[in-house]
Amino acid sequence: MTQPVPPAFAERHIGPGDAETARMLEVVGQPSLEALVDAAIPAGIHDPEALAIEAAPSEQAVIAELREIASHNTVVTSMIGLGYYGTHTPPVVKRNILENPAWYTAYTPYQPEISQGRLEALLNFQTVVSDLTGLEVANASMLDEGTAAAEAMTLMRRAAKAKDGAVLVLDEMLLPQTVGVIHTRARALGIECVTISLDDVDSADALSFAVDGKPVFGVIVQYPGKDGQVRDFRKVADAAHGLGALVTAAADLLGLTVLAEPASWGADVAVGSSQRFGVPMGFGGPHAGYMAVGQKLSRTMPGRLVGVSIDAEGKPAYRLALQTREQHIRREKATSNICTAQVLLAVMASMYAVWHGPVGLREIAVHAHSHAKALADALRAGGVDVTTTRFFDTITVSVPGKAREIAAKALEAGVNLCIVDDDTLSISTDETTVAEHVAAVCGAFGVDAPSEIPTVEPDFGDLARTSEYLTHPVFHAYRSETSMLRYLRRLADRDYALDRGMIPLGSCTMKLNATTEMEAITWPEFSALHPFAPSEQTQGIRDLAAQLSAWLVEITGYDEVSLQPNAGSQGELAGLMAIRGYHEANGDHERDVCLIPSSAHGTNAASAAMAGLKVVVVKSADDGSIDMDDLRAKIDKHGERLAAIMVTYPSTHGVYEDTITELCDLVHEAGGQVYVDGANMNALVGVARPGHFGGDASHLNLHKTFCIPHGGGGPGVGPVGVRRHLAPHLPNHPLAAEAGPESGVGPISAAPFGSASILPISWAYIRLMGGTGLTAATRMAVLNANYVAARLRDSYPVLYAGEGGLVAHECILDLRELTKISGVTVDDVAKRLVDYGFHAPTMSFPVAGTLMVEPTESEDAGELDRFCDAMIAIRAEIQDVIDGKVEVEKSVLRGAPHTAHCLAGDWDAEYDRMTAAYPAGVDPRAKYWPPVRRIDGAHGDRHLICSCPPPEAFEEE
Question: Which principal EC class is assigned to this enzyme (predicted)?
Answer without folding.
Answer: oxidoreductase
